[in-house]
Specification:
The structure holds 2 protein chains of 2 kinds.
Chain A lengths: L1 H18 L9 E8 L6 H20 L7 E8 L4 H13 L5 E5 L2 H13 L4 E3 L5 H4 L6 E4 L3 H16 L5 E7 L2 H17 L2 E8 L7 H9 L4 E5 L3 H12 L5 E4 L6 H7 L7 E4 L6 H13 L10 H19 L6 H9 L21 E2 L4 E6 L4 E4 L7
Parallel strand pairs in A: 1-2, 1-3, 4-5, 5-11, 6-7, 6-8, 8-9, 9-10
Antiparallel strand pairs in A: 10-12, 12-13
Helix pairs in contact in A: 2-12, 3-4, 6-7, 9-10, 12-13
Chain B lengths: L9 H5 L5 H16 L6 H26 L7 H18 L4 H23 L4 H21 L1 H4 L5 E2 L4 E2 L2 E2 L3 H23 L2 H11 L1 H6 L4 H27 L1 E2 L6 H14 L4 H25 L5 H25 L3 H15 L5
Classes of the chains: A alpha/beta, B mainly alpha.
């Protein structure tokens, strides 16, 4: 009798362990965390990102949720400061008890959160800063969606070399003196080597620089006609504005952040029809469909904040949801990670190449499409489809 | 509450406090801090450790700016030197943490002398700009000295164990931070009561008069830089242990501005003020988050769309209001409260 009672208790204990839900999962909801840039000069990145999470969440919940559980997104602001990202994720883990993480801010920010992600075995989708530092070395619970800046610049320079530039074109690079700038330079050097480009000039500048008069004068002196512009937002706009002042005939390859309507509007006055390489679609039927979907869930005034960051966040959340769905009602972090690893050919409705995490680096979305901005019409047009470079 | 301040012996003049009530409160506060980890969550501990780092930085800046009158905007640079020294020695060279922490402080103190020497001929805004330039140089040096600092890639800080305890998380980190903060505060309090502290105050009040009295300006100004930077370096090392990852983005210029705001808001020149200012500014964002969580309607579209902007504006408004209505800072407010109760019911 005693033995039977003992085994019954043991069985119950084991069963309760098996069914013990991980943090962030209740009978009715699943909490997903999002650490984003919601304040400061780059706040429009976070605003766009938040819309993507919200649209995905509402769409999934309207369709019945994840095996009957609704998704709840909890957003924390880090102001693009790594120490605040660490604090924000601590709060999400300890106070809000999130189950998984979708928004991870910039590269340094996600690295600052990495010890916590690893320690809590937190299923994490990195789609905002897909830098090699995030997936090399591979962290078991971290899945990265997106191409490198290296690939994005290589794709643009390849297109320019093959379709736009004259044979005697002179190529130049201007880039930030950080990890992001290094990655841009990698793509530039790869293109220079592959196509034997005439590239006499590479300029580094300190992050935060706003006056590029001297740098652009150097570009002009070197006769640069194709520029790999590795500055972002106002910096990128200032470089093109300086080039316009000097009447430089220029074909410019840009960072994907310049594909945001707000940044494109900053670059437009210089009048250059610049190029952008991106791993999400900037224009086309997929984007139109998304906008129609967003109208159902997002207030009219917020629609103007839709940008490429909206699409990456939407795709990240859909991939997470797909993995969680596969786990059934017994949802655990371990199962979600396992199912994320098994994702193969997950369609994104044309917003990017299909998602596929079944590789050693747990990396997807590396295919890049090249777009061109029409400064007069203030619109982008696709020059290529999504291709691997 | 005691109202008189008559000192009857030289010993009373140099004692930290001759009031039993003060010692009683200090003891109660110490016990409360020792028991705090048993009462708050891990997130609460994270906030408190961040506040400790801020207290160390503010108290150290107060030695330089509040007591010696040397305005520094280079605190983020000093903090970076301490954090990087600790991270490199710990993670790359595998030295024990009991050695890397003081080494981080010493490295920062040495580097501060490089800034201190040209700063000897400068005062006020000129010195502020010089120290600001220093923090830019430090950032550049970190980015370009890649073989040593890992450049823009940053460093994952690991291996800080002592007696089998992991000093980078939970209670061990809390007690380490508490210990270092108390050491910093005690050092600052004691320095003020020595010849060195009095020389610093004399330099702040009138450097030419101080020199006429026989105070060696070169020696004492450099000493102020070195001692202050030692503790800022320790704070940087502690920050690196808490974050477990550092790169140059962690040490933005805003940290220097915040440190200055802490000592001004707390009450310039006062160590207790620096502590109050640092705790207040460190915990204010969290207090605002809790406050808005209580008073706001979670279904309000306006609030949910602009919650972060609203909190940011409120943060600025609180600081401006304090400076406008309480220019003596938090310590001035505390003195007013104390005076009010001491004189009650005759207070006016």
């Amino acid at each position: 009798m005693k033995r039977a009672a003992f085994y019954a208790c043991l069985g119950l204990a084991l069963a309760s362990q098996v069914h013990a839900a991980d943090p962030g999962v209740s009978d009715t909801e699943i909490k997903i965390g999002d650490v984003s840039i919601m304040t400061g000069p780059a706040a429009f990145v976070g605003r766009g990102f938040a819309i993507g999470s919200k649209v995905a969440m509402e769409e999934i919940n309207a369709a019945g949720g994840i095996n009957g559980r609704k998704i709840v997104v909890v957003t924390e602001d880090d102001g693009y400061i790594p120490s605040r990202s660490f604090q924000a994720l601590t709060k999400l883990l300890e106070v809000d008890k999130i189950f998984a993480l979708n928004g991870t801010s910039g590269t340094a920010n996600v690295l600052a959160m990495m010890p916590l992600i690893t320690e809590h075995k937190l299923p994490t989708l990195v789609s905002q800063a897909p830098a090699p530092l995030v997936y090399q070395p591979v962290r078991p619970t971290v899945f990265t969606f997106g191409a490198t800046y290296d690939n994005a610049f290589y794709a643009q320079l390849k297109y320019i070399h093959e379709k736009v530039a004259k044979p005697d074109a002179v190529y130049g690079l201007i880039r930030q003196d950080d990890d992001f700038g290094k990655d841009v330079e990698l793509g530039f050097e790869r293109a220079v080597k592959a196509f034997k480009l005439n590239a006499p000039l590479r300029i580094r500048f300190k992050k935060g620089t706003s006056n590029f008069a001297a740098e652009v004068a150097q570009l002009r002196k070197a006769g640069v006609s194709v520029l790999a512009n590795g500055a972002i937002f106002a910096g990128a706009a200032n470089i093109l504005a300086e080039a316009r002042k000097l009447d430089m005939p220029l074909t410019a390859a840009q960072v994907w952040s310049e594909g945001i309507p707000a940044s494109a509007a900053l670059l437009a006055p210089a009048g250059y029809d610049f190029l952008v390489g991106d791993y999400v679609s900037l224009v086309g039927p997929a984007n139109d469909r998304f906008r129609e979907l967003a109208k159902r869930f997002v207030p009219e005034g917020e629609l103007k904040n839709i940008s490429r960051y909206t699409y990456v966040s939407y795709i990240g959340m859909k991939a997470l949801a797909h993995a969680m769905q596969q786990c059934g009602r017994e949802l655990t972090r371990a199962c979600t990670v396992e199912k994320l690893r098994q994702i193969k050919g997950l369609e994104t409705g044309g917003l990017s190449a299909p998602v596929d995490f079944g590789n050693e680096q747990q990396l997807s979305g590396t295919a890049v499409a090249v777009y061109q901005y029409d400064a007069k019409a203030a619109t982008f047009k696709a020059l290529t489809g999504f291709e691997q470079y | 509450m005691r109202t008189g301040h008559m000192k009857l012996s030289p010993g009373q003049l140099i004692a930290l406090s001759d009031s039993r009530v003060v010692w009683g409160w200090a003891l109660a506060g110490g016990v409360a801090l020792l028991l705090l980890p048993f009462a708050v969550s891990n997130y609460g501990l994270t906030l408190v450790v961040s506040a400790f780092v801020a207290v160390m930085g503010a108290v150290a800046l107060n030695m330089l700016t509040g007591q010696t009158g040397l305005i520094s905007l280079g605190q983020s640079g000093f903090l970076a030197v301490g954090a990087y020294a600790n991270a490199i020695l710990l993670s790359d060279y595998g030295l024990p943490v009991w050695l890397t922490l003081p080494a981080a402080g010493l490295a920062t103190a040495l580097v501060s002398l490089v800034v201190g020497v040209p700063s000897l001929r400068l005062k006020g805004l000129y010195l502020a700009i010089t120290t600001l330039a220093f923090s830019f140089i430090i950032n550049h040096a970190i980015l370009y000295a890649e073989p040593l600092t890992h450049g823009p890639n940053g460093i994952f800080v690991k291996g800080a164990t002592l007696f089998g305890l992991d000093l980078q998380r939970g209670m061990p980190l809390y007690y380490l931070a508490l210990g270092l903060t108390l050491v910093t505060i005690l050092a600052a309090l004691n320095m003020t009561r020595t010849r060195i502290g009095r020389a610093w105050i004399a330099i702040r009040d009138h450097d030419i008069a101080a020199r006429a009295m026989g105070i060696d300006l070169v020696r004492f100004k450099l000493l102020a830089f070195a001692v202050s930077s030692f503790f800022v370096g320790l704070a940087g090392a502690l920050l690196s242990l808490q974050l477990r990852f550092i790169n140059v983005d962690v040490f933005g210029l805003i940290l220097s501005i915040e440190a200055l705001a802490m000592i001004i808001l707390g009450g310039l020149g006062s160590i207790a003020g620096a502590v109050l200012g640092a705790v207040f500014l460190s915990l204010l964002p969290e207090a605002l988050r809790l406050f808005f969580g209580l008073v706001s309607d979670p279904n309000s579209t306006f609030y949910t769309n602009y919650v972060f902007e609203i909190r940011g504006i409120a943060y600025g408004v609180v600081i401006v209001a304090f400076l406008r209505f309480k220019p003596d800072g938090l310590i001035g407010m505390w003195r007013d409260i104390r005076k009010y109760w001491s004189n009650w019911p005759l207070a006016y």
